[in-house]
Amino acid sequence: MAMRCKRCRGQAVMEVRRHNAAFCRDCYLHYVGQQVTRAIAKYRMLGHTDRVLVAVSGGKDSLALWDLLLELGYQADGLYLSLGIGAYSERSKAVCEEFAAARGARLLVHDLAAEHGYTIPEAAGGTGRSSCGVCGLSKRYVFNKAALDGGYDVVCTGHNLDDEAAVLFANTLRWETGAMARQFPVLEATRPGLVKKVKPLYRVAERETAAYCVLKGIDYVVEECPLVAGNTQMRHKETLNQMEEAAPGTKHSFLFGYLERAAGLLKVADDADLTECQRCGMTTQVPEDPAAEAVCAFCRSKARLVKTLPVVEVTSR
Amino acid sequence: MLVTARLRPPDRMVEVADVRRVADLLARLEVLPGAVLVIRDGALLTSQDELRDGDQVEVRFAISGGG
After folding, report:
1. B27 touches chain A (CB under 8 A)
2. B66 touches chain A (CB under 8 A)
3. What is the mean pLDDT of chain A?
4. Is residue A276 part of a domain?
5. Which terminus of chain B is more solvent-facing, meaning fewer CB atoms within 10 Å of its CB: N or C?
6. Cβ B46–A215 below 8 Å, yes or no?
């Protein structure tokens, strides 16, 4: 027998087992909007007069988020950062441009190679970090700087419930208390040079954002990033999904229990002093050695890359 | 009865015989229902929806590893 919608008893199209519920199309879209509205209200993420910058990749989460924020009436512009991952980046950029054009929304486009001299595939081969590590570092830096330069009040990212549960799982396995303390749906701008960052999708699972896109007809990049195969976060998500299958609600309880009962206890662990990077002027941690130059992780990574990338000699005749 | 499933990403086609419901199809493919969406003619299917002979469905993985 077909499933019925929990709200209206019509024919259901989407099951949400962790809530022991199923929804028809309209009630499902209402449910997702409600989750995002609750997230924004609980942590005072956004105001309707704020200038909001949504970091978009062309994937399901960030496009669903941009669509939801526009529907909820926020002044939300998009920011796409081209990472130089061949056809994958080209397709991602085109999808974001089409999304913006269809809604009359403003999309800022930045390019890692043009602005900083490297692509993620080059970086993956040139430093000791994983490609995902360099990618995350580059994105955090560019998003913050673009928001500062553009006068935005807040940056929104499409991190969903599964992303947050997987990161918490990884940090817990290693008892990274400093990283755990910083993992929160809101990171306030605690000093000049830092823009407020929020995650309005932290209450929505990634299968749910994908369903939102299908039901809204949002064309997103279904293909996975070619550099991501077998990465640690994917393996942690697979483990959590096995647990979720046996006990629906496991990921939800793990993340929400942490946020409600444990995160506050860890706030003292995140006591890093901050200062200005002496190369780019952005915010970074004060070095442990007082004699050392304060250089942010992005500038350090970029300096290593410049040394390792092939140098093209230009000679004049 | 025969159902054709397009699994992605990565893109691959599989034919599965004698599956009555979506839940049966996913069990046969050894795919966790909580990790995928099943789509037929652009519409989402739930695990209890019935499949028909000749159906072509997409089994779309919803897990991504960025972040």
Report:
1. no
2. yes
3. 92
4. no
5. N
6. no
Q: Which domains does chain B have, with CATH numbers?
A: 2-61 (3.10.20.30)
The boundaries of the domain holding residue A174 are 43-271
Taking only the tens place, the pLDDT of each residue in A23-77 is 999 999 999 999 999 999 999 999 999 999 999 999 999 999 999 999 999 999 9
Give B46 to chain A, closest Cα distance, Å: 6
Q: Does B28 touch chain A (CB under 8 A)?
A: no
Instruction: Report DSSP state, residue A262.
Output: I
Cβ–Cβ < 8 Å for A256, A204: no
| pLDDT (tens digit per residue) in B20-37 | 999 999 999 999 999 999
In sequence order, what are the residues at sequence separation of 6 or more whose Cβ sits closer than 8 angstroms to the Cβ of residue A134? A120, A123, A124, A127, A301
How far apart, in Å, do the first and last CA atoms of chain A sit?
80
Give A108's strand partners.
Answer: A79
- Global pTM reads 0.92
Who among B37, B39, B65 is closest to A224 (CB)? B65
Question: Dihedrals φ, ψ of A116, to 5°?
Answer: -130, -5
The verdict on a CB contact (< 8 Å) between B66 and A17 is: no
Report residue A110 as tokens.
């930045």
What is the least distance, in Å, from the CA of A202 to any CA of chain B?
Answer: 13
In a domain, A153, yes or no: yes
Both tokens of A306, joined, read 């410049």
Q: Does position A126 have pLDDT exceeding 80, yes or no?
A: no
CATH number at residue A113: 3.40.50.620
Q: Which of A63, A221, A224 is the best substitution to test chain B (most B C-beta atoms within 10 A)? A: A224
Asked if residue A220 belongs to a domain, the reply is: yes
Nearest Cα of chain B lies from the Cα of A26 at a distance, in angstroms, of 13
CB-based contact A59 B65, cutoff 8 Å: no
Q: What is the pLDDT of residues A80-113, one digit of tens each?
A: 999 999 999 999 999 999 999 999 999 999 999 9
Total domain count, chain A: 1
ipTM score above 0.90: yes
| Length reported for chain B | 67
